[in-house]
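This section describes the prediction task in plain terms. A model, or a person checking by hand, is given the sequence of a single protein chain and must write out its three-dimensional structure as a string of tokens. No templates, partner chains or ligands are provided. The sample shown here is typical of the held-out split.
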Amino acid sequence: MQSGGDYTNGFHGELQRDEKQVPILSALGRAKRRSRGGARDPRGGLTNGELRVSDQISEQKPLETQESPPPCTDFDVAYFHSYAHVGIHEEMIKDRSRTETYREAIMQHQNLIQDKVVVDVGCGTGILSIFCAQAGAKRVYAVDASDIAVQANEVVKANGLSDKVIVLHGRVEDVEIDEEVDVIISEWMGYMLLYESMLGSVITARDRWLKPGGLILPSHATLYMAPISHPDRYSHSIDFWRNVYGIDMSAMMQLAKQCAFEEPSVESISGETVLTWPEVVKHIDCQTIKIQELDSVTARYKFKSMMRAPMHGFAFWFDVEFSEPAKNTNATSVANGSSSISPFTEGNQKKRSNPSDALVLSTSPESPPTHWQQTIVYFYDPIDVEQDQVIEGSVTLSQSKENRRFMNIHLEYSSAGRSFVKESVMR
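The expected answer:
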């Protein structure tokens, strides 16, 4: 998850640095998923050698650079460094729904990958790059700014794929690839889809290298939201303080609410906690979205409760779709708030009920759990709602000015003549 959202140049036998590359700051540590950084030793070189583009393409004319890349901030460095830890990659790879859906998507699009050039944005351990090589890719650029790129290089060599998979240790914004590519693959999604802002790196890779009509996997993403009732969570965290071993500790409740619900919570909920059909917050077409669109996303919503219950907050989850550009016929309807993908269907690997029949990876409450789970924005106090009662308002998700990988959440909601605002930051 993230952000991205996940990048110095290639290797041939061992990692080497391209002298033209913009230096990467030394790594620190932060974030939930997605590696992209490069530690340097005291002498100024990368700690595990230098990077260069493969000899196979060194004679080709470099593509024109469009504009200067954004600077690599200390926050970015900390984010990249956090992905050098093996535990993050273990968690992602062990998420079978995630990993197996990506492998299936690669094999479903084998005719577009075989004998083609691929870029894997935020390659981590290199597993998706290897899947692409196994599907017959002519060449795969595995890009990652984290020091995990060193291990990815070793994994590639151990599997006898050094002639096909070129590990580039650096940011997508900085590395050089001296040819256009046919395919971009990336597992860029963060919690609540947009947390970690890694999608911007996928967009950069697209604008720098992807051929017109090239394939991007996943091709689309959709963020959903819905109100929930979760009395067990509220009771566990808040009502507990009413009676503690026979002692009235209700004076602790206000502080407990602040500590428990100030920030969004990443957890798994069941479909039974959801009070209404979900609504679309943001639909993303990876072929056309611009980086500027990620600065701030605002959506209005109007729900009608399907039951009488206390409402404790809003849940957010997402789907991603793997389809070919020519078959993306539903983008308009989804962007306007209606999706032909049911948010509540069995299994993570879902298919659209239309001719495109695209593979979809879902993180909805009724799908098998993933490491993304769902993201819940809890209220400090629940709101009682009746069946068919309308809940309406707006949500704005924006990149934090403090750190663009953080996400500000501004929720306005009203029901039965009462209006509320909840603001939080996903750090």
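For orientation: The longest strand covers residues 309-322.
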